[in-house]
């Protein structure tokens, strides 16, 4: 017989701990593999990979906050379990435990530490917020974003590259004035009603912008907003009806689009300092806005600055969005999402000749 301790270096308790550790490791590996996540995605804590400096700053703030919360949580749980394990009543011990009514040093520490934690989080939150909300007085691209039930209209209000290679004023004040002065039908006396410019239309749309180059989404075609990489871009949002929300997940930021933003005390203007990656990125409405809210998608198509200039020149020359995209060797339609069938839930009745042909089969 082999003496205890010579042939077996581990006790049953040690072997049990090893089995538990192995099972925990295997379980963690299975969770990662079955969920299809890489370790990089795990570190990202479920956030999409940002494509702007503001998105990276927001992501760092979030990850840092989660790590800090986990550290504090682990320390708190450890103290709770340690207290429960080593300060419980022992069998046969009827003596009342020693009572500690006050401990001034400990109470000061437990007051100062939470205050310091909140102060640090507040500081980094303000720093990140200032970076995300910063507005340069001279952005290189100004985009008008108009939301409506249930789609989007994008227009290029101004493009002025800082290197002087491209300068374009795309605002269309004449079209806006025509829209505002447009008659709104006839009144009870058969006379034409004047539009919002004279205040007789209860639905004042004078806050909406119109541009010479615009892209409007339909139920059959996803609107594609083409933007240049490496340029500061300003978005000016407004809604033609109810509250919507312009959201590109890779921006790690969204901003609600209000009708008449000024009257609703809404800051409808925000900027990104640059987009660092080219490609197609899906955008969505992030505010419940009615029946087809889930179908209110769009696409951001990020191209090089040179391709963007060629695209905009093609649009100015009269080409539609799809043709201009093809001119710079880009897919003409959205590739990150697709239109929804707005007939969903309806019974589609075939034409008589189609029904007859099916009956003869």
Question: Your description of this structure?
Answer:
Strands 1, 2, 3, 4, 6 and 9 form a six-stranded mixed sheet that branches. Strands 5-11-10-7-8 form a five-stranded mixed sheet. Among the domains are: 17-80 and 104-133, no CATH class; 141-171 and 209-327, Cupredoxins -  blue copper proteins (Immunoglobulin-like, Sandwich), CATH 2.60.40.420. It has helices at residues 12-34, 39-43, 53-86, 104-133, 173-180, 305-316, 321-327, 352-359, and strands at residues 141-148, 151-160, 167-169, 214-216, 224-228, 233-239, 244-248, 253-257, 269-272, 279-285, 297-303. Residues 1-9, 195-202 and 354-361 have low confidence and may be disordered. The longest helix is centred in the N-terminal third of the chain and has 34 residues, at 53-86. Helix 3 (53-86) runs antiparallel to helix 4 and helix 6 (305-316) crosses helix 7. Helix content is 35%, strand content 18%.
């Amino acid at each position: 017989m082999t003496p205890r301790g010579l042939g077996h270096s581990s006790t049953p308790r040690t072997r049990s701990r090893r089995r538990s550790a192995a099972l925990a490791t295997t379980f963690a590996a299975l969770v990662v593999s079955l969920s299809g996540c890489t370790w990089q995605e795990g570190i990202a804590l479920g956030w999409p990979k940002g494509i702007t400096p503001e998105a990276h700053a927001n992501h760092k703030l979030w990850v840092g906050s989660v790590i800090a919360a986990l550290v504090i949580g682990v320390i708190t749980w450890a103290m709770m379990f340690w207290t429960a394990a080593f300060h419980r009543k022992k069998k046969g011990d009827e003596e009342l435990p020693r009572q500690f009514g006050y401990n001034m040093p400990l109470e000061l520490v437990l007051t100062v530490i939470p205050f310091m934690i909140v102060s640090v989080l507040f500081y980094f939150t303000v720093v990140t917020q200032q970076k995300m909300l910063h507005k340069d007085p001279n952005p290189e691209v100004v985009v008008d974003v108009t939301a409506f039930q249930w789609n989007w209209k994008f227009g290029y209000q101004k493009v002025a590259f800082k290197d002087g290679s491209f300068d374009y004023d795309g605002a269309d004040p004449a079209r806006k004035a025509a829209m505002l002065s447009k008659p709104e039908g006839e009144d009870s006396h058969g006379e034409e009603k004047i539009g919002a410019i004279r205040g007789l239309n209860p639905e004042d749309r004078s806050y909406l912008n119109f541009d010479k180059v615009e892209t409007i989404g339909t139920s059959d075609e996803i609107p594609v907003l083409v933007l240049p990489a490496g340029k500061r871009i300003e978005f000016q949002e407004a809604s033609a009806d109810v509250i919507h929300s312009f959201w590109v997940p890779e921006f790690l930021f969204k901003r609600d689009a209000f009708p008449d933003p000024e009257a609703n005390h809404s800051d409808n203007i925000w900027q990104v300092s640059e987009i660092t990656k080219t490609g197609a990125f899906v955008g969505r409405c992030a505010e419940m806005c009615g029946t087809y809210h889930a179908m209110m998608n769009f696409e951001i198509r990020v191209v090089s600055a040179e391709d963007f200039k060629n695209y905009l020149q093609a649009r100015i020359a009269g080409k539609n969005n799809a043709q201009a995209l093809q001119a710079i060797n880009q897919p003409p339609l959205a590739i990150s999402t697709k239109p929804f069938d707005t007939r969903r839930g309806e019974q589609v009745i075939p034409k008589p000749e189609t029904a007859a042909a099916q009956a003869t089969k």
